[in-house]
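Researcher: I'd like a structural prediction for the single chain below. Treat it as a standalone chain; there are no partners to consider.
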Amino acid sequence: MQSRLPGTILLFVSFAITSIQAQTYTFSLLSSFSNSGTGPYNPNALIIDSSGNLYGASNDGGKYGIGTLFKVTPNGAVTTLFSFKPSVIDGYSGPSRPNTLARDSKGNLYGTTPYCGCAEGGSPSDPGYVFELKSGKSKLTLLATDWSLASRREGQPPELAVDSVGNVFGMDCTFNDDFIGCGPANLYEVRAGGTYRILHSFPGLHESGIGLDGNLVLRNGNVYGEDDGEVNQPAANGEVWEWSRQSGFSVLHSFDGTDGSYPGSLRQDAAGNLYGSTAGGGTNGGGTIFKITGSGVFSTLYKFCSKSNCTDGGYPVNITLDTLGNIYGITAVGGASGFGVLFKVAPRGKESVLYNFTSYPGTNFLMDKSGNFYGTMGFSTTGPNGVWKLTKR
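Model: Treating it as a single chain, here is the predicted structure.
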């Protein structure tokens, strides 16, 4: 089986997290969102700070119904930090429906909004934006205008990360009038102060564009990311790459399907090893967990749907790490009820299911210092809408 799954970007803060020993968790909706008020609704990005406060972006809700930036405290109290509102900038509609979020060490938030007017066969009528919301402020600063900041047909937002001096790195998907893929896609940088430049252009990529539920990793000035393969190249299954100011762009690993396909979530440990997930491929077609060492050696740690009826989970959509090299993540399908699982993969590849979801957990996935997990649910007329938490018992 192979699947392209809708997702949102996960941008996260790395902490010194100890290994999780307990494997029993209690599920709760930490904060429930409603479409009847002025708060957030349909969250699609989530990050966490060192105090356990969560920050997110929502596609809907707010005073004007076109999105918010919000904060959720550890006890579940919700504050709307900014409500996007209708406006006209240089003859075009202003930013709305934010779909990525990053946070710097000063507490400033950065994100993107997609361009609008994406009717098939037409041209985009409104640009996307890269924005900043300074900590404690209520006014949004637009850092760059980008005609390529599209939400792809399946809702996959661009990737975004910010370094220690406020430079913003992102991925976009250039408009394609038949909605099939990106033509091309770009890795870009917005320097502190607002100077925009393209660092690398990819040939046309598959319709979901730049890595399912993927993220950019920044380390020592280098950028690491993934894409899911070139459009019109059926055999292409995606790749993991590196960009540096000294040597430019290079591919670290190209997937062939047997070792995974459509890479997504990417993390790096303190030793410089990269870990990631693929949403398809592997022996059983249910996706994989992989590792790339600092010297470039690739290995597949686990292949999902290895157990009957995918009780071990299938299609991993996001991962995180602890300091002992254990990998935790969530899947989109499989498990006891078919809605996915919370899993752990030990450094040598042993997988264990820690929790079976009873409704789709979404694609955002975070861990706090105590080993509790968080994510978002939304975009369903019948399911929960808000921020969920799995608490260690």
